[in-house]
## 1
Amino acid sequence: MSEESRLRRWLIIALMGAFILPLGATLIMASYKLVTTAGPMIWGSWSNHSSRLQREEDRVARIEQDARERSFQIVCPDYFDASILDRWTGYRNLSWCEDYRDRMPETD
């Protein structure tokens, strides 16, 4: 190896030691700081948002169930009188009536 190539090699090593390694260490420390400070805030925000969405879904489900309990005797006879094809197409949104089939009053 020539003297010039050795000098270049040591110059590259010195530059890496002076600039690249401290830059890498700084990036690692900044990443750690970001993860330990912003991470919990982001997780808490996401967790609160998810909980709020779940509570809202539960509230909507209770309201729908209550409305179905109060209206199945009025709404479901049309569903049960419809043909299977009509149930699959026009009355598709009333498929919940199947849960109330055994509670429907008998008609002659």
## 2
Amino acid sequence: MTFEGVITIILYSLKPYWWLLVLLLVPLVLTQLSGWKKHGPRPGFLYLLCVVVGIGAALVAPALTMSKLSYVATTTDWLSLLAVAVGAAIYCFLLLSPVLRRAS
């Protein structure tokens, strides 16, 4: 399969979820714009909060898909769950970092 074919399949599979992606992008853009002038240090608890949010998202993800955590058995399942955790932690960091910075 060509690279073009892979991109086409990905775009078609994302098509029903574009509105959710935009819904996630709007708060991200708003917080980035609100923290535009803040260049101070980030508080230390931000990293811990992001890790907690990532773990929480990984624990809640199977329930959102009408599954159970006990059904996560294969390597692919665990890697997908890890991707959910890392993605949620990164999104939390990007969302809260500009807001919680101390203006210097």
